[in-house]
Every structure is written in C-alpha cells, then in structure tokens.
C-alpha cells in the first residue's frame, strides 16, 4: 500500500469542504473560482471597509477573495470624485470635502460659512476652487 500526503493551504482546504459565505451564497472558491490570486489589506482600505480582521476574513481565515473582485470597481468610481480635503464650490455652498460615498457617487462637504455638512452629487459641484 502506498500513502501520499500533500500539504494544502487554508484556501484550498475551504475549497474542498465548501460552505456558505456571509453573503448567503455558496463560497466563490468552491463554486466558480479556479485559481487564487493575492488579496491585500490595501484593497479593503480602498473600499472604505473597517480593518477589523474578523470582518475581512473569509471562511478559510484569510482575506476574503471578493475584496479583489470589487477593488477595481472602487478604484474606477473613486477616480471621478474630488479627493477628501479638496476645496470645492457647489450649488449647496462652498466648502471642503470631508467624505466620499463611492457607490452613490456623492461627496459630503463641510460648508465654509456655517460648518454644516451637506451631501452633494457630482452635478451639484460647480468647479474646483483655487487654493489660497
């Protein structure tokens, strides 16, 4: 009798055992994913996720594979938004960007005249203000 022992990684083990992900669907690795590509914490940061390891870890204990597939969409959507800290003029008042809502394509700006935070769409923005 011949016994062969191979060491497999955490993701490969989860692929074999299968299961349901936190999204309610069958795990990507056991249903359609053919090969594993690297996933980094930078991808979670770009998507605005809290860096809580318990929430970022998949069933295998490593970073969730879906972070990689959503990363490029966030990068492209964020490209069209003004950066946090930028001074802008809008129909809702002039102010500074304090937050971005990438999926809704809106920004929250703090108005200079009264320090109130208002949400503005890209259509509400008039033009970037020149820095003093």
SSE blueprint and pairings:
Layout: H1 10-17, H2 28-31, H3 41-46, H4 53-56, H5 66-79, E1 87-90, E2 95-101, E3 106-111, E4 117-121, E5 125-128
Antiparallel strand pairs: 1-2, 1-5, 2-3, 3-4
- Helix-strand sequence: HHHHHEEEEE
Major β-sheet profile = 5 strands, antiparallel
- Helix share, percent: 25-40%
User: Are there runs of 5+ residues with pLDDT below 50, and where?
Assistant: none
Structural class: alpha+beta
Could you say how many structural domains there are in total?
A: 2
Number of strands: 5
In order across it, which strands form the biggest sheet? 4-3-2-1-5
How large is the share of residues in beta strands?
A: 15-25%
Compute the average pLDDT: 87
Shape: rod-shaped
Radius of gyration: 21 Å
**Helical run tally:** 5
- The span between the termini is 81 Å
Can you give a write-up of this model?
It is a single chain. The chain has 132 residues and is of the alpha+beta class. It folds into 2 domains: 10-79, no CATH class; 87-128. The chain has helices spanning 10-17, 28-31, 41-46, 53-56, 66-79, and strands at residues 87-90, 95-101, 106-111, 117-121, 125-128. It has a 5-stranded antiparallel β-sheet with strand order 4-3-2-1-5, with no helix packed on it. The longest helix has 14 residues, at 66-79. The protein is rod-shaped and about 80 Å long. The mean pLDDT is 87.
Using brief descriptors, characterize the structure shown.
single chain, 132 residues, alpha+beta, 5-stranded antiparallel beta sheet, rod-shaped
């Amino acid at each position: 009798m011949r016994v062969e022992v191979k060491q497999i990684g955490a993701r490969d083990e989860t692929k074999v055992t299968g299961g349901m992900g936190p999204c309610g669907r069958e795990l990507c690795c056991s249903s359609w994913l053919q090969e594993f590509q690297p996933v980094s914490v930078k991808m979670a940061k770009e998507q605005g996720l809290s860096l809580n390891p318990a929430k970022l870890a998949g069933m295998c204990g490593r970073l969730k594979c879906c972070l990689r597939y959503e990363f490029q969409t966030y990068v492209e959507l964020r490209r069209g938004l003004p950066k946090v800290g930028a001074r802008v003029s809008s129909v809702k008042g002039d102010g500074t960007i304090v937050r971005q809502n990438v999926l809704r394509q809106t920004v929250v700006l703090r108005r200079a005249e009264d320090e109130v935070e208002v949400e503005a769409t890209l259509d509400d923005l008039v033009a970037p203000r020149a820095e003093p």
